[in-house]
């Protein structure tokens, strides 16, 4: 019997998981291998789960002890921990990645978001990560804001596959798709093979609703708009995707084997208990896209998810929803600007939390080693 995640893949949507930690990657009964057996075809590392693993488990202690005599910088400790997680996760999905579905088998790992204003530094990190992991199914995560757009183009031109993160609007998706297309054109001009490169744009759906709903409740009007901005925006981004990857310029690249920059619907956990818990996961099912699920949402979808195409419907209604938000005094543009800034800030804070915990672990394990 096919699981609901496997049925999702049969409808053309790739189910991914937003979690990567050392013990979970290697747990055959309760971790990533089990979910792969149930239909998961990709994963993205989450700095928050790494923080929890470092603070609440001993999963990384052995590697930290090994690195103590040879590594002094907490940034390098962090890079080495992530490198090993990414490599091992990539290995679990290598066979899937070798199949004929371009959205399957990928592992996404973000570079340090603190360098958002330095494209050269972002690209240097991306190149290091790709070379250090040494697997063809790695996506380097780059924030789609600030100098990240130039970095996405440059990384693509160098033959790296990119996960563009923090895409909150159709306009930002188009910016990101343009950066990807320009990078592919440069890659082809240099004699590279675009068939070996892909890109995915991560669209955090729930964050749009959470921010918009706070403002709607503050103005005290239009309760019918509560919980509508996220999926409406996703549908408009999907429309932008379908429109962008057509025409002569794209067809020329496609003739060399290039694949479109597909959408990864992320942030699909419903925080409002008054809303159905699977409304995002069930409401954005469409061919040629991927869904990034938390472990909890993945398990819920396995037990009671309903699989039917929903993404490419109600586009006119989606446009009306955005217009209605503007009329209600809740500007989607201002919400997107705020979310982009928060995404960069929270990303930098998460990386800082990881490194603070690494320093604590280094001190703790270093003292124990010399007792």
UniProtKB/TrEMBL annotation:
Keywords: Cytoplasm, Pentose shunt, Schiff base, Transferase. Pathway: Carbohydrate degradation; pentose phosphate pathway; D-glyceraldehyde 3-phosphate and beta-D-fructose 6-phosphate from D-ribose 5-phosphate and D-xylulose 5-phosphate (non-oxidative stage): step 2/3. GO terms for biological process: carbohydrate metabolic process; pentose-phosphate shunt. Coiled coil: none annotated. Its EC number is 2.2.1.2. InterPro entries: Aldolase_TIM, TAL/FSA, Transaldolase_2. Its main location: cytoplasm. It is found in: Cytoplasm. Pfam families: TAL_FSA. It comes from the Bacteria. It catalyses: D-sedoheptulose 7-phosphate + D-glyceraldehyde 3-phosphate = D-erythrose 4-phosphate + beta-D-fructose 6-phosphate. One of its GO terms (molecular function) is transaldolase activity. One of its GO terms (cellular component) is cytoplasm. Transaldolase is important for the balance of metabolites in the pentose-phosphate pathway. Belongs to the transaldolase family. Type 2 subfamily. This is Transaldolase. It comes from Catenulispora acidiphila (strain DSM 44928 / JCM 14897 / NBRC 102108 / NRRL B-24433 / ID139908). The gene is tal.
């Amino acid at each position: 019997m096919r699981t609901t995640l496997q049925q999702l893949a049969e409808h053309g949507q790739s189910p991914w998981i937003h979690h990567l930690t050392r013990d979970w990657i290697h747990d055959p009964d309760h971790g990533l291998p089990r979910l792969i057996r149930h239909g998961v075809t990709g994963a993205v590392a989450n700095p928050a789960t790494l923080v929890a693993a470092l603070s609440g488990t001993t999963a990384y202690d052995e590697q930290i002890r090994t690195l103590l005599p040879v590594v002094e910088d907490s940034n390098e400790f962090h890079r080495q921990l992530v490198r090993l997680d990414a490599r091992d996760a990539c290995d679990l999905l290598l066979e899937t990645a070798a199949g004929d579905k371009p959205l399957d088998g990928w592992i996404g790992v973000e570079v340090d978001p603190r360098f958002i204003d330095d494209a050269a530094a972002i690209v240097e990190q991306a190149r290091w990560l790709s070379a250090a992991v040494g697997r063809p199914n790695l996506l380097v995560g780059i924030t789609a804001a600030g100098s990240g757009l130039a970095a996405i183009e440059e990384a693509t031109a160098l033959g790296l596959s990119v996960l563009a993160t923090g895409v909150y609007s159709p306009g930002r998706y188009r910016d990101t798709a343009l950066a990807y297309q320009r990078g592919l054109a440069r890659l082809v001009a240099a004699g590279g093979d675009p068939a070996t490169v892909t890109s995915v744009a991560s669209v955090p759906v729930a964050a749009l609703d959470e921010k918009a709903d706070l403002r709607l409740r503050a103005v005290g009007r239009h309760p019918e708009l509560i919980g509508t901005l996220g999926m409406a925006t996703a549908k408009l981004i999907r429309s932008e995707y379908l429109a962008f990857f057509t025409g002569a310029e794209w067809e020329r690249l496609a003739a060399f084997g290039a694949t479109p920059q597909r959408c990864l619907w992320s942030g699909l956990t419903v925080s409002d208990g008054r809303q159905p818990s699977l409304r995002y996961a069930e409401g954005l099912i469409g061919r040629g896209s991927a869904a990034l699920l938390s472990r909890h949402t993945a398990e819920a979808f396995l037990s009671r998810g309903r699989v039917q195409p929903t993404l490419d419907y109600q586009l006119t209604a989606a446009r009306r929803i955005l217009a209605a938000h503007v009329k209600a005094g809740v500007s989607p543009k201002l919400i997107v600007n705020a979310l982009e800034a928060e995404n960069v800030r929270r990303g930098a804070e998460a990386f800082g939390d990881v490194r603070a915990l690494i320093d604590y672990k280094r001190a703790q394990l270093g003292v124990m080693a010399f007792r």
